[in-house]
Amino acid sequence: MNHFIRHKLGIILIIMLIKPVLSRADVGVIVNSGVKESVMSFIDLKLVFTNKIRTWQDGKKINIVIFEKADVKEAFLKEFIQMTPSQFKTLWLELVFTGKANMYKIVYTEESLLDIVSNTPGAIGFIAFKGGEKINNGVKAIKLQ
Question: 30, CA 20 to 30 Å: which among 20, 121, 122, 133?
Answer without folding.
Answer: 20
